[in-house]
Amino acid sequence: MHLSQDLKRILENQGYALVGKHSAVKLCHWLRKSLLESKACYKNTFYGIESHRCLQMSPAAFHCTQKCLYCWRFQGFTLTELKKEEADEPAYILEKCIEEQRRLLTGYKGDERVDLKKWEEATEPKHVACSLTGEPTLYPFLSEFFEECHKRGMTTFLVTNGTNPEALENMDVLPKQLYVTVAAPNEEIYKKLCCPLIPKAWEKLNETLDLLPSLDTRTVIRHTLVKNWNLGYEKEYAKLDMKANPWFIEPKGYMFLGYSRQRMTLANMPSHEEIKKFGEKLAELTGYEIEAERKDSRVVLLGRGKERRIK
Predict the structure, then answer these.
(1) Would you state the CATH architecture of domain 14-303?
(2) Helices 201-211 and 187-194: crossing angle, nearest 10°?
(3) Residue 44 dihedral angles phi and psi, to the nearest 5°
(4) Residue 198's pLDDT is what?
(5) Nearest to 125 by CA among 33, 53, 56
(6) Is the pTM of this model over 0.90?
(7) Are β-strands 248-253 and 218-225 bridged in parallel, bridged antiparallel, or unpaired?
(8) How many CB atoms are located within 10 Å of the residue 86 CB?
(9) Dihedral sign, CA of 240, 246, 251, 252?
(10) In angstroms, how far apart are the furthest CA atoms of the chain?
């Protein structure tokens, strides 16, 4: 696909570096905080990820199967399919994303707040967060992409909206940690809040939840919670979670950021206390326990004593 110059400008002004025909990379907010203030993100607290060495990218930056109202990304060009013959090679995407990450990092080298050793480490990323924008499972060579990452000794996170179970089922190489976002307790709320662009999306999400226990990787269900929309409903969420049987559950508060501000208000952002209360109720219903929390990210981690540190 060919993006217009206007769309390219919008993305580049937002800090994205475009890679090839359909991929993008962007310095994470927490990578910058780690370099400038030595503060790490909640994935460091929860799973031991080094924020300054994380590559935040997407191999399907303009493709998605939903137009979620709470999404902070630009949604001006959502496509629902990425054909094999139009797709860039996995090794090319990874190499170019690392190159672009290094380019985006150049300005930090001379900043007196940045430790030079840490900056040098940042130019050699060792974690790939396949989650930046779009729906990554629409990239047809995702399995091969993770294989390329693992060959380099990199850990991999995949965040999916769960509407493409076939892609997960057919992957020979899975990410080291697989997140499925479950942002609605039932189909009615799902359709209003997540605005699916494909038929039977709720059924497909449930197929993904049914599939999760059979996948040989670490699994996480993330509940993105928007006040006055999908916060509460713990019994319904618990049923979905028990079906998926994930290693971890992450209830996380919606943040009033980016383009979501055109559709939401500040009143839709829950407090950390509300998220923790939700987490406590969900823990009671599922048998999980709260293992960690990060107030600044409005997120709690529910688990069952499994190894948290990702290797």
Answers:
(1) Alpha-Beta Barrel (3.20)
(2) 110
(3) -70, -45
(4) 96
(5) 53
(6) yes
(7) parallel
(8) 11
(9) negative
(10) 53
Calpha distance 42→51 (Å, rounded): 9
* Secondary structure class of 24 (helix, strand, coil): strand
Specify the DSSP class assigned to residue 1. Answer: -
Q: Please name the helix (run of DSSP H) or strand (run of DSSP E) that holds residue 159, with its range, or none.
A: strand 155-160
pLDDT at 183: 98
- The two tokens of residue 183 are 């942002």
Domain extent listing, the chain: 14-303
**Torsion angles phi and psi, residue 54, rounded to 5:** -105, 130
Task: Name every residue whose Cβ is closer than 8 Å to that of residue 135 and which is 6 or more positions away in sequence.
Answer: 60, 63, 64, 65, 66, 160, 161, 163, 164
181 bridge partner residues: 222
Contacts of residue 66, defined as CB under 8 A and 6 or more positions apart, other chains included, come to: 135, 161, 163, 194, 195, 196, 197, 201
Give the pLDDT confidence of 146-191 residue by residue, as tens digits.
Answer: 999 999 999 999 999 999 999 999 999 999 999 999 999 999 999 9
- What DSSP string describes 96-138? HHHHHHHHHHGGGTT-TTS-HHHHHHHTS--EEEE-SSS-GGG
If one counts every other C-beta atom within 10 angstroms of the C-beta of residue 79, the result is: 16
Residue written as token pair 């609605």: 184
Comparing CA positions, the residue from 159, 107, 106, 102 lying closest to residue 128 is 159
- Measured CA to CA, the distance from residue 297 to residue 61 in angstroms comes to 24
What is d(CA 158, CA 174) in angstroms, rounded to the nearest whole number? Answer: 9
d(CA 193, CA 57): 24
Please provide residue 268's backbone torsions phi and psi, each rounded to the nearest 5 degrees: -85, -5
Contact 197, 66 (CB under 8 A): yes
| 214 within 8 A of 251, measured Cβ to Cβ | no
Of 167, 162, 213, 164, residue with least CA distance to 183: 162
Q: Is the pLDDT of residue 31 over 90?
A: yes
